[in-house]
Amino acid sequence: MSTNNLSYNDQGGSDSAVEVGQETTPTSSNAGAGFGLFSTNFKKNDDLKEMLESNKDSLKLDAMKRIIALIATGKNASELFPAVVKNVASKNIELKKLVYVYLVRYAEEQQDLALLSISTFQRALKDPNQLIRASALRVLSSIRVPIIVPIMMLAIKEAASDMSPYVRKTSAHAIQKLYSLDPDQKEHLIEVIDKLLKDKSTLVAGSVVMAFEEVCPDRIDLIHKNYRKLCNLLVDVEEWGQVVIITMLTRYARTQFTSPWKEDGLFDENSETAFYESDEKKTKNGDEKKSYMMDPDHRLLLRNTKPLLQSRNTAVVVSVAQLYWHLAPKHEVGVITKSLVRLLRSHREVQYVVLQNIATMSIQRKGMFEPYMKSFYVRSTDATHIKSLKLEILTSLANEANISTILREFQTYVKSQDKQFAAGTIQAIGRCATNISEVTDTCLQGLVLLLSNRDETVVAESVVVIKKLLQTQPTQHSDIIKHMAKLFDNIAVPMARASILWLMGEYCERVPQIAPDVLRKMAKSFTSEEDIVKLQTVNLAAKLYLTNSKQTKLLTQYILNLGKYDQNYDIRDRTRFIRQLIVPNEKSGALGKYARRILLAPKPAPVLESTYKDRDRYQLGTLSHTINTKASGYLELSDWPAVAPDQSVRNVEVIEPVMIHLYFYYPCPLITQSSSEAESDEEKSSSQSSEESDKSSSQSEKSSSESDSEQKKTTKKPPQKKTVKPTLRLNHTFFLVPVLLSVVPVSGYTVLSQSKCLSRSLFSLCILTPCPLSCAAALLQVSGPAFVPEKRHDLLHRMTGKGLSAQYQFPRQPCLYQPTMVSVQISLTNTTDHPLEQIHIGDRGPTGLDMHCFNTVECLLPEASVTVSLGVDFNDSTQAANFQLCTKEDQFSVSIQPAVGELFLPATMTEQDFRKEQGKLLGMNESSATITMAAENTTRQPISRQVATVANLGVVPSGQDNIHRFAGKTASSGAVVLVTVELRESSAALITINTEKSVMGPMLLRDLKRALTRA
Amino acid sequence: MIHSLFLVNSSGDIFLEKHWKSVVSRSVCDYFFEAQERASEPENVPPVIPTPHHYLISVLRHRIYFVAVIQSEVPPLFVIEFLHRVVDTFQDYFGVCTEAAIKDNVVVVYELLEEMLDNGFPLATESNILKELIKPPTILRTVVNTITGSTNVGEQLPTGQLSVVPWRRTGVKYTNNEAYFDVVEEIDAIIDKSGSTITAEIQGVIDACVKLTGMPDLTLSFMNPRLLDDVSFHPCVRFKRWEAERILSFIPPDGNFRLLSYHVSSQNLVAIPVYVKHNITFREGSSQGRFELTLGPKQTMGKGVEAVLVSSQLPRGVLNTNLNPTQGTYTFDPVTKLLSWDVGKINPQKLPSLKGSMSLQAGASKPDENPTINIQFKIQQSALSGLKVNRLDMYGEKYKPFKGIKYMTKAGKFQALLSN
Question: What is the pLDDT of residues A511-563, one digit of tens each?
Fold first, then answer.
């Protein structure tokens, strides 16, 4: 012991000596190692301090790197705090970052000094660069100093309404930090969470749900309104966020929807066969089950999570699996099997958790994993805990049909060199034997053979298992008991010895010759036995005394005497109890008469069941499930409500849509010249148009449009375009002939009739010039939309669509399918009382606009709605995309009419770049107008807001207060679009638009004029 | 979520710690060390260990334990997956993930960990974004840094995090635009004594190395996409296009990444590319045993089987072996009883075999364990499942990229059980 201590000290000493050697090299040191730890620390810090106070960044950086290395190895560097904090405002990014790391680590210990740094962060919170704002908020909120709670609160609130989604994401993280620092802020934080939950950005969603889970997981009411949005966003959220959202939605769904399992009760009873058939009968079942109708929101969740089973992130896959397990109708749970089995090829730790979950599932639903039984075969290279989990699963999967295969597999396991595993296999065989009565005898024979195995653990385990098996059918196995009695001398494992003794006692009447002899041997060796063996010896003695007292009376008394003076109090206790019970004397009283009945009562056979039997009380995939105890912060999964709470809480109130009328543009392809008359009409009222379309809706698209145009007054004839040569490059461009009788007073969606001629002529010009892709486009970086209008436009009225109503909106997200496309979201609603099937996009008509269709919506239940997204390449023109929206029975011609402002993607650029670009786009490419601004539109924010509403443009930081700049590029060709709003005296303003797209320029100008002049 | 991280080496020393919330004392690792002591093998340490106030979730890779400390309920796989992602990132940055590499680059490691988690919640785990934030150390850069005093931390702020394609950095430029795809399949199988297959499954991946300028949008189509019924994708792949058209459409990350992994399960018929013939006898009472092993190709689609390596754990009773390989070299370690035979290439005309005698411990009885042999091999230019890429198209950029595809089959956990 003392030598150990000494060597330990020695090592410590040499360690610190080495440290001194390393740390003091730069300065000449005369503080020897003899001064011990304190002086070296002092010395070392002095040196670092000096470096930090130098003027050179490189020295400071060196010092910081060494300090970080100290922190990383767990050494204390808190004394350097003042010297480090001074560098918090350094220009050098790496230095600054390292200072941040240091600050976050030690601020808690040095609260007063940490306050010195706060003002730097406050300043950075106002920086124009979103990444700097975000990182400032990140560090500020990580400083665990209670005094700054109000500052943090303010910063979080501000950041939550920041333009940049990245900053908003950071604020969601900060919420959790503030909450752990000061739980009293809960109410205020919930307000912020509520606000952020409404955020539409995929960046924010995961983080804010995380904050929700930490701060107020019980406020389910905050989720209602965001439920559908979260479901729809889920696929695009980053993987870590997906896990959190799915877990939260699982809990949510269990409180809001009724159980889909009630009708499925019969599947459980009929077990596998019903389960397999159910797949084929699925559709039929759906019709049969009138009494249970799945809430469309419930369905939405299941449908939107399913593709995530193919995520590369194992945590996502398992969270979807648990969602299906806890929420899906029983016959649909099968879809998760394959994905879970796939995960078994992943890292060892992943396998461990996945196997645990499968173990729990396989107890309730054998059928799910039975086809994959071979995936659970044990490999010699598996870790021990993986092996035992696989055994567990194989045992659960065993049934009459596959038991012979499994037992054959088990036979090889028993021979494994890993004896612990072999013992586990024997237990598993025992479980199979009890569960499946057909093989009990076979198993028993096999186990008896194992009794002659050379390995002690195998033999011992076999004995224990045989004991349990014999208990289940005690009638005829006296030879096995005799065989075991013979083995008794050679077995040393206490548990096995105890088991044999118990068997002897229990069935002593079957082996009357042998039992007393065994007791005799035990009496000899009693004192040297283990405690459990002693206890069983006492038991055996008592039982033999009762059945065969003639032979064993003296032996029993001898053993009871030995037990009386045993070291272990349990054994002394037991001996005393047994003596009173069996040896008749005057004090024993009434109980003695029943001794026989007490000791030799028929005992219920032990039930050999899985240790995973009760794990299903925990939500699958959780930590609590893994460790089989409730982890702190575990949120119970509630039972299904008997009656579903109000469904309408999830309805999002539609922001009163501005009435937009459909214009009929008749596009004529240049190549396939036709003399068809293109007419357009402006509808007087939506009701009128719907009536008209109603009549024609059963007809095909073409006839419908013809009939429409016939019904209406033909107003203008389109110009004959036969003159245009079909060799033009842009042979997919169409002429737009907007012919309007009057102008509907809605911003952004009308084409003034006056500008018609102009635009037409410019349009042809535009076609003749092959669009040069501006080299500047490469400079442009597309940024997120500044503002997403909530405006929805009618695509198909429910009257026209025979109950199918469709609305579309522009989410202003870059299109996923192709970068040149504009993404359009269509929400389909079924207003009928029967499900609509196979909603898809049919014939796209002769327009030939490049479109990316949504996947067919297989079934839309009554009152349900679904949002699908679509990509349309409008080729930078405002022509409508015409296509047919089809259901199984009907086809409806619809068209999407983009406002010019929706054809852009916002871009970020500096003011200089803006000027440079503007310089290139003068003359014909410039259009401008002077307007009188509405009174409230004279400051920056309203102007930005108005411009952003009209067009999807990004704000360019401007040095002058009276000039506001916006930039973007067109979606299809990537041409630059620059907008300048210059305020003049007395609310006059000059709007200038520079773009090489000379049709779009004037159109955008007109829209902007209207928006800015409007009160 | 994740509170702290401790890195523990194989001798049980904590050599790095990082805390994302308030500091957790490193004494919490004592519970881990206890479990480590109990475990017979390093792999047997349970991944999740509950302690009175914390929970320890650990992964073991490259002989380093990454021990995460958490305080409250969190899906364990979330933590495990993240830890593996950390290891992958280190490997990506330093080439190897060893204790020495981590200690040498402790500052970069710290910067990385700082960016990867915010308050215990993953922030940036995409290697492309991280590389924009913190440049990986290279020898050249280290030299330049020491001379000029410049830093590893990226000067510009990353934009990838803000875009809708967070996995790709912006402003990528290459003079040679190239895209390479490697289809690598690993076959796992257990072959029983008589040579019939107990289980066989194929685990395939498509690894890509894409070096393309700008924002290319790629589509990859297969000749036989029906094979891929069990797949997982890199987040860049558009699920919907896959479901509708069985086409992989994606904007690729820059550099190396795993596009997808797939699994051809044991239910499908899997061709076994090699067979093993063997004859091993131990005679009761005799101190000699005979050993004979022959390998041969089987269903290899005309491609040669290369880099064959056979290893087997012989029973404890075997003292030594005296074997003759017809090709390659063999070694037998009398201490670990590990026999390994480096065969090389299989020549179908002249099958490789290993014959000879084993000397057994005198008086020891016939070993009752089944020896198993593990076989490793490679087959170039062929994917065992028959998966074939049809074509690769690029949209969104104007240049013509150079495209390449390579197929390879490897043995994964390929075991044959021998009779005794």
Answer: 788 888 888 888 888 888 888 889 889 888 888 888 877 888 888 889 888 88
Of A238, A342, A375, the CB nearest to B266: A375
Alpha-carbon gap, residue A243 to A258, rounded angstroms: 24
Nearest-angstrom CA–CA distance, A681 and A711: 11
DSSP classification of residue B359:
E
Query: B40 vs A635: CB contact, 8 Å cut-off?
Result: no
**CA distances, A482 to each of A448, A454, A512, A546, A603 (Å):** 11, 19, 10, 21, 21
Chain A window 389-408: which residues touch B at a Cβ cutoff of 8 Å?
none
β-sheet bridge partners, residue A534: none
The mean per-residue pLDDT over the stretch B84-89 comes to 92
Cβ pair B124, A134 in contact under 8 A: no
Q: Choose between A768 and A646: higher pLDDT.
A: A646
Confidence band of A738 (pLDDT split at 50, 70, 90):
very low
Q: Taking residues A813-828, what's their average pLDDT?
A: 78
Do B199 and A635 make contact, defined as CB atoms within 8 angstroms? no
Instruction: Quote the CA–CA distance of A663 and A751 in Å, as a whole number.
Output: 10
Nearest in space to A370 (alpha carbons), one of A347, A354, A353, A394: A394
* CA gap A765, A751 in Å, rounded: 19
A268-281 burial, b at 16+ Cβ within 10 Å, e below that, comes to eeeeeebbeebeee
Give contacts of B15 with chain A, Cβ < 8 Å: 73
Q: Which residues of A touch B230 (CB under 8 A)?
A: 338-339, 342
Number of residues in chain B: 420
Confidence class for position B325, pLDDT limits 50, 70, 90: confident
DSSP A135-201: HHHHHHHH---GGGHHHHHHHHHHHHT-S-HHHHHHHHHHHHHHHHH-GGGHHHHHHHHHHHHT---
Sign of CA dihedral A282, A284, A289, A290: positive
Chain A (502-521) residues lying within 8 Å, Cβ to Cβ, of chain B:
none
Alpha-carbon distances of A633 from A207, A622, A894, A962, rounded to whole Å: 18, 11, 51, 54
Q: Do B217 and A383 touch (CB under 8 A)?
A: no
Q: Report pLDDT for B202.
A: 87
A832: tokens are 């009928």
Distance CA B65, CA A168 (A): 35
As a dihedral over the C-alpha atoms of residue B244, residue B247, residue B249, residue B252, rounded to 10 degrees, the angle is 140
pLDDT of residue B162: 55
**Tokens 């003042």 label which residue?**
A82
Residue B418 three-state SS: coil
CA distances from B166 to A314, A563, A780, B27 (A): 20, 74, 17, 38
Does B359 score more than 90 pLDDT? no
Instruction: Tell me if B203 sits within 8 A of B412, measured CB to CB.
Output: yes
Sequence-distant (6+) residues with CB within 8 A of A76 are A70
| Residue spans of beta strands (DSSP E) within B51-196 | 55-61, 64-70, 117-118, 121-122, 178-191
The pLDDT value recorded for residue A92 is: 80
* Contacts with B23 (C-beta within 8 Å, 6 or more apart), sequence order: A105, A108, B4
Reported in sequence order, the residue ranges of B86-230 that DSSP labels E, i.e. its strands, are 117-118, 121-122, 178-191, 197-211, 217-222
What number of other Cβ atoms are within 10 A of residue A132's Cβ?
16
Angstroms from B278 CA to nearest CA on chain A: 18
The enclosing H or E element of B16 equals strand B14-19
**Percent helix, strand and coil across chain B, each rounded to 5?**
20, 45, 40
Residue partners of A70: CB distance under 8 A and separation at least 6: A76, A77
φ, ψ (nearest 5 deg) of residue A807: -130, 150
Question: Global pTM?
Answer: 0.67
Residue A318 one-letter amino acid: V
